[in-house]
Amino acid sequence: LRGCDWDYVIMPLTADERRRHLNHFISQPAPSTPKPDSVPPQTKSQFTLAVKDNIATSSSLPTTCASNILSGYVSPIEATIVTQLRALGASITGKTNLDEFGMGSHSTHSAFGPASQGSSEEVPISAGGSSGGSAVAVANNEVDLALGTDTGGSVRLPAAYTGVVGYKPSYGMISRYGVVPYANSLDTVGFLSRDIKRIRDLIAGNQGEAGRAGLWKHHDPNDPTSLSLPARLRCAGQRQGYTKRWEKESLKEIKFGIPLEYNIEELDPKIRDAWSAGAELLQQEFGAKVVPVSLPTTKQALAAYYVIAPAEASSNLAKYDGIRYGKRDEEAASDAAGGVLYAATRGKGFGEEVKRRILLGSYTLSSEAMDNYFIKAQRVRRLVRRDFNRVFALENPLHERETFSLSDLPETIELEDKWGPEEVDFLLCPTAPTLAPKLAEVMDQASVDSYMNDVFTVPASLAGLPAISIPVRIASEGGSGTAGLQLIGQYWDDARLLGVAEAMA
Ligand code: GLN
């Protein structure tokens, strides 16, 4: 299979292959010595959980978003997803390191210093970001499941770099209540594990011990973007897979699309090989259909994302002013001059990348720049969504199939639809264009270069679609030796996406 060890899919690395590394946990519960009679009975469904530190945990664990501005902050509430998972048997092992407020692709923009993978004797490798700490905790076998957040790829990219499974659900499926917002219209809670079945049981929840889970059903009235129950049932009614058992055999029924625009020049040849080996395997061994498809707006998606996400971030982060939220700069607080407190608190509290995004977002939302940037980016977002709707066999239950109008298109987009439309079930593509780089190479990397890593993950985010990164082993020298292949599905086709991913294992 030309360098792609498909057997590795879903298989956890052995203990020898994964060694401890520092800095992926940034806070952990104090060890307690429970009295023998208060020890809860261990049931098989209990599991250990790491929680990305931008997801609120109440009680003794702070929620810092890896930012100095929230240093020591303890949330008065617990995120709904944490409460739900605790009710399903999760015990929290600790809070994990991330890029400050989720902004980054290598977990290097953290007030706690970077998270990384590799043993202390080895050259550290990027853990990916922004949920890098969660990914390393899972890869090191320290927890069964980890929560991350995925705004533009922050669960899928670290999963690909560290060789674990990373799943981003459909937007609106998992409650965001208690998740510190970065870019609300894109933010989703995501799941990292070595085992797809564990994630599938929690989400689709029709089989096994966690049968009562079925997180897809749970509307949260505290989150205005959580899909209502009638909408959930309507969406699921048009989908299979919430009750189906998935076997390798089932893959025969599936048509996979290969989006040609993802075959970019910058794609590492080893990843390209793994991608074509995966496609061949699906076709030849599993009897699936594999066809080329075209998503013409892919090229514009990354730029649109880096306009929309910072714009929303600049608004979300306005509340950290040392008065409403945030660690106040006390020296400036005693200064009589108005405005000094804000500037000093924010100047000292935020890291460089966060400041860059706030400036960028404030600019693109300003009256003179808005039409040129923010509004155009929203139009591109609509086109990205339409590209996906055009190739998927299933309708998007939230949108009418949009009619094609030439005046909608930016001039740069090719009008010719070379390869389709093909009515496919899922798209198969790489998760990231390169293998995990050495940490030293990315520590001082220009921000725009690191934005490149998100080129394959942001389109599904802009369209709110479910996507999963599945690990494949790659022959490589001095790297982590793993890469991710990504499956993207139509909106609310999560159960089938997870089922198909599991069947590929
Ligand atoms: N790397 C992207 C960014 O910095 C994605 C982050 C995320 O998904 N939280 O915005």
UniProtKB/TrEMBL annotation:
- Top-level class of the enzyme under EC nomenclature: ligase
Quick one: where's region Disordered? 103-131
What residue stretches are annotated with the Amidase domain? 49-498
Keywords of the record, alphabetical order, are: ATP-binding, Ligase, Mitochondrion, Nucleotide-binding, Protein biosynthesis
The Polar residues compositionally biased stretches are 105-120
GO cellular component terms, alphabetically, are: glutamyl-tRNA(Gln) amidotransferase complex; mitochondrion
Fetch the Pfam families from UniProt: Amidase (PF01425)
* Catalysed conversion reaction: L-glutamyl-tRNA(Gln) + L-glutamine + ATP + H2O = L-glutaminyl-tRNA(Gln) + L-glutamate + ADP + phosphate + H(+)
- What does UniProt list as catalytic? K52 (charge relay system), S130 (charge relay system), S154 (acyl-ester intermediate)
Return the EC number: 6.3.5.7
Any idea where this protein resides?
Answer: Mitochondrion
Query: GO biological process annotations for this chain's record?
Result: glutaminyl-tRNAGln biosynthesis via transamidation; mitochondrial translation
> Can the keyword Cell membrane be found in this entry's annotation?
no
Q: Does the keyword Nucleotide-binding apply?
A: yes
Q: Which GO terms describe its molecular function?
A: ATP binding; glutaminyl-tRNA synthase (glutamine-hydrolyzing) activity
The record's annotation in InterPro entries points to: Amidase, Amidase_CS, Amidase_dom, AS_sf, GatA
Query: According to its UniProt record, where is this protein mainly located?
Result: mitochondrion
| Function text | Allows the formation of correctly charged Gln-tRNA(Gln) through the transamidation of misacylated Glu-tRNA(Gln) in the mitochondria. The reaction takes place in the presence of glutamine and ATP through an activated gamma-phospho-Glu-tRNA(Gln).
The family line of this record is:
Belongs to the amidase family. GatA subfamily.
Q: How does it assemble?
A: Subunit of the heterotrimeric GatCAB amidotransferase (AdT) complex, composed of A, B and C subunits.
Name used for this protein in its record: Glutamyl-tRNA(Gln) amidotransferase subunit A, mitochondrial
What organism is the protein native to?
A: Cladorrhinum samala
- Organism lineage: Eukaryota, Fungi, Dikarya, Ascomycota, Pezizomycotina
